[in-house]
Amino acid sequence: MLAPNQPLTESEVAAIKRDFPILQQEVNGQPLAYLDSGATAERPRQVLDAERRFLEHDNAAVHRGAHTLAALSTDAYEDARATVAGFIGAASPSEVVWTANATDALNLVAYGIANASRGRGGAAAERFRIGPGDEVLVTEAEHHANLVPWQELAALTGATLRWVPVADDGTWTADDAVARITERTAVVAFAHVSNVTGMIAPVAAVVAAAHAHGALVVLDACQSAPHRPLDVQELGVDFAAFSGHKMLGPNGIGVLWGRAELLDALPPFRTGGSMITTVAMEGSEYMPAPERFEAGTQPVSQAVALAEAVRYLQGIGTERVRAHEEHLAQRMLDGLAAVPGIRVVGPPAGVPRSGLVSFDVDGVHAHDVSQYLDAQGIAVRSGHHCAQPLHRRLGLVATSRASTYVYTTEQDVDRFLTAVGEVRGYFGAAS
């Protein structure tokens, strides 16, 4: 039996790939090599079937009706919450809040803090109050979803937004961050894994420094939850956010995890039905977490499907997922190093990174690179990847990004490397 941290074997990946109907097709007359999972992952038949099965047999409004389907739907909805809670090491299912996506989850925290700073939430919410003289710290490498909400929080409260600068390769260090955490720091928000560089953040050091100064830590786990073991309690962060569509699940659902005592004190920013205990014309009272943050009709079938995606990943083993992707990333890095005119951004050789690689082709725009690869049936991402400040710091308008997942084969990577090697010649950029 293979160790739990060994890369997947070629036969195992082939079997996994057969679970994904979309990957069985040809694109532009070539077998599809899907290397854009960092943007949106594909869904296995098991996940598609789970959502369809629910919709065909159990679909109803949750936490409302007293009829059989309502009870079945509510059970499935809350069972999904418990499944996801177990997957990330939450202390209780009540620490898992369903959101529309990770962007929504991060906005929930930022605007909840803004509401607390305006006096909403009473005495319990005072712990979140910030204002002039306080600071919110992010990094220069953040996805816009983990930057713009904090810009808005600073604008709404008078706090100051500060950031950890990145080096020429787009990475930052624990020392860089710790040096900027002071008694004025109220919130530290950063990505567990960069969606551009693949850098794995030094979470422990940042958490220790932040908590020593009484600051909250918010973790963007979009590129870690799908690809490597994630234990929120072990990490020690206060909030974490990730999306379903990046981890073999459906669109329209995300997850906010937060420590129970923090969620119960944080004021909601989206209000309406389902999140209240009492409503009078003069005012309303809100339920405890997680329901206080789940106003309106809920993404029930999406939660059911996300839970099935979690079980699918657990069946493979998250350590083996990580090992497989890091093996493929190294294969890409080795191959790109042999291609003239390629600049790879991210951690230097020998430093662990996730299973994605962003690069610039000298003399060829990233969009042209993507279109050339697409003609060969190879799907990669091109653009600034919702990280304009990072690209600006790197002196780049855009990069091309190849990202791997459980269904990515060595053959997919080798086809990608062959095509990248042809790009500069095709566009007349080779010297």
UniProtKB/TrEMBL annotation:
Family matches, as CDD domains: SufS_like
Pfam families xref list: Aminotran_5
Entry annotated with the keyword Transferase: yes
**Which keywords has UniProt assigned to this entry?**
Pyridoxal phosphate, Transferase
The entry sums up its family as follows: Belongs to the class-V pyridoxal-phosphate-dependent aminotransferase family. Csd subfamily.
Q: What is its EC number?
A: 2.8.1.7
Q: What is the name of the protein in this document? A: Cysteine desulfurase
According to its UniProt entry, what is the function of this protein?
Catalyzes the removal of elemental sulfur and selenium atoms from L-cysteine, L-cystine, L-selenocysteine, and L-selenocystine to produce L-alanine.
Report the enzyme's class at the first EC level: transferase
NCBIfam families per the record?
sufS
Aminotransferase class V domain span: 34-416
SUPFAM superfamilies for this protein: PLP-dependent transferases
InterPro entries from the xrefs?
Answer: Aminotrans_V_dom, Aminotrans_V_PyrdxlP_BS, Cys_dSase_SufS, PyrdxlP-dep_Trfase, PyrdxlP-dep_Trfase_major, PyrdxlP-dep_Trfase_small
As its record notes, the protein acts as a catalyst of: (sulfur carrier)-H + L-cysteine = (sulfur carrier)-SH + L-alanine
What cofactor requirement does the entry state? pyridoxal 5'-phosphate
UniProt feature coiled coil, ranges: none
Q: Which domain of life is it from?
A: Bacteria
The top of its lineage is:
Bacteria, Bacillati, Actinomycetota, Actinomycetes, Micrococcales
